[in-house]
């Protein structure tokens, strides 16, 4: 029996794969996942300080409330170490072991101070303070005391103080409190100051009084202006007087002249009187010796007449002079020299 | 009296059924684990299924899901940072947002997303295969269905959840740095310190185990639920429904357990 010939294999077109580059895509995703996972683990180890050299610092505290493992210790707000272990020491104090990153250990010196602060909100904080950064560096395994400052313990004291302060403030702000009255007065004064007469009204109390002061000032101004005019006039008068009295043709030089003349006249008069004396002596001699004299009487009478004329002449001159002076001199007086 | 007996019998049967399905799930997980740990179980066919599973579960949704996770992370970080700032606790904002996102929310959201997308698909597929007798047929033909069909799905699902969690978490880290410190490098030491405080060794292992548990639950529960489907077509939707509810329950249980271990 002959078998039928086997038909040639059918050339089917190759079936396209369900997804293009399936292997590559899956490989990429797997590689990325493994990479991310490994990188994340390494990063977490790095972040936990697994690759950082640290030095230990032992802190003793009376109590460790609020301190937890892994809690950071900060310097100027930057974490430089963290709590590794906590234990009770032999004397009942808490021993806190802190791992300080070696690179940041330079911020800690022998004189550094460590505090535990417990704020009202949030976790407690261990802080390091270094006053002198040039001091000797803190040695590895150093043991220091942890100073605690508990904000919540202060609250009752604080509340009492605040109450007192509030009571004072209340007394100060009460309606009849002195400070309130003072403020009211200040308000009144400043209100007045805002008026037409400004500060003056504020000081004096009312606009009327301020107005009076302003008027008084204005009057004083007027008065000063008048006084100024008067003084100007006085100046003029004085100048004139100066001219009249002391000038070359003024009163005084003339008076001086007149006095000189009077002197001269008086000298004349003295001379005349001497002559009269001599004449009178002659008359005496003559009267004692009348007989002899009778002969000479006519001559004597002639002499007498001449003398009389001379005396009259002198007196007239004096009178004239006095009149002259009177004319010039303001203090006139009725002066007349009369011959006896 | 008869009513009470009837009621108790029904309750008891329901309880037994529930217990049985959980037991089956655990047994399936154990068998899958054993198979996965056997090097000879892997060949090109297994690898192909694993790769397809990863592709459909992780690669396909990677851009969209990453974008969504970035948006969610950014919004939550902003809220945490803003709120912490209002209460004067800015120094804790970074730590809180990292704990919230990387430790809790992002793995859970990833698991839920994968559960909704791939878990439901796996459940439906296995249920239909079971209803149509394909699984029995394959086993009759000597095909190791666990090795060729189910174990690769579990492996793929776990790797997908891990990969998506890793990508979104690292993205969240970067976003948190930007949100708290702004675009500059000087605050890296501070950031490192906080990260070191958050991600200590137990937490790192915790995240790893949690993500693995999420990945396991997301694939094991739908497969076991699908395998337990009675051979009736109308049972397919019910199987998916039950599987999804159990999956959600399991995810929440894992999350709560993780939280309890971490914080209590």
Can I get a quick summary?
Chain A is of the alpha/beta class and 340 residues long. Helix content of chain A is 56%, strand content 15%. A seven-stranded mixed barrel of chain A has the order 1-4-3-2-6-5-7.
List keywords for this structure.
heterodimer; A: 340 residues; alpha/beta; 3 domains; B: 264 residues; mainly alpha; globular
Describe the protein.
The complex is a heterodimer of chains A (340) and B (264). Helix content of chain A is 56%, strand content 15%. By secondary structure, chain A is an alpha/beta fold. Chain A has 3 domains: 51-150; 174-244; 251-328. A 7-stranded mixed beta barrel of chain A has the order 1-4-3-2-6-5-7. In chain A, a hairpin with a 6-residue loop joins strand 5 and strand 6 (125-129). In chain A, helix 3 (178-193) crosses helix 4. The N and C termini of chain A lie far apart (225 Å). By secondary structure, chain B is mostly helical. Chain B has one domain. Chain B has 9 helices and no strands. Chain B is globular and about 65 Å long. At the A-B interface, helix 1 of A face helix 2, helix 6 and helix 7 of B.
